[in-house]
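anyone seen this seq b4? input:
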Amino acid sequence: MSNNNTDREVIVSIKHVDISFGSGAKKFVAVKDANFDIYKGETFALVGESGSGKTTLGRAIMRINPCSAGEILFEGKRISGNISAEEDRNVVRSIQMIFQDPAASLNERATIDYCISEGLYNFHLYKDEQERVAKVDRALKEVGLLPEHKSRYPHEFSGGQRQRVGIARAMIMEPKFIVADEPISALDVSIRAQVLNLMNKLKKEKDLTYLFIAHDLSVVRFVSDRIAVIHLGEIVEIAEAETLFEYPLHPYTISLLSAVPMPDPLIEKNRKHIVYDPSVLDQSGEPREMREVRPGHFVHCTEKEFEGYCQKAAQLEKEKGKA
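predicted toks r here
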């Protein structure tokens, strides 16, 4: 996929990736021909409804799900398929995951000290016990918890605190890239902003790059630099966050945006929810691919649809210009 951001360093590259489960008649293709780059230092959001393939793709980057076609590159090196044990260790250390459910992703029988130190033990990233304890204390302070919390167990914490422990566990490995899989969807609304602000703070301090997986577009708008919309395993649109909200082109993106709740009750009352209807797409059977409609704004479409999207984008810009 061509990009006009050639001066930016690509940290993760997804090239023609398919991910399938089962075989023969029972084969299910969860992700089809995914293509995108994630630039160093950005928050790239992957958005779609439940079952669209978001987490499957995130887990493929983590080397949990194998790719059935295509390849995934990290810092220019292929990390999908068979790689050496040394490269595998490097991926495990450099790419960390923040999970959706903080209760399920922490070992209930282990203390917080052990939960956070697990990566340090596995990779022996400390000289002595004193250094390990100092690293754990620092990680806890960074996420707004106290060093004296070390001796407690996960069930003694609230959901928001447990997610902070999960973030500390990822950060202590000093990763370069983090896959955040719906990190706030299991939390109370009042806690969500705190966790998002914490993730943003750590991103700036530690020069991190995030893949932020979510189904809630209203959250994504405020945390991400660019957004990819995924529907039934296919990436249908990629654009910068504000561009996607101002100029949505693909019918599925428009449908998703129409479902975002508005804080103004009058607007919310009079708003129409748009139901996605795939029959409005070109049914000619012509192959679809990601095409650049405007600079940095890609839509998955046929040649015929591409012309329509170009006209629509020009029309939207004209309308916004008048307003």
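The CA atoms of residues 55 and 191 lie 23 Å apart. The mean pLDDT is 91. kinda curious what u guys think
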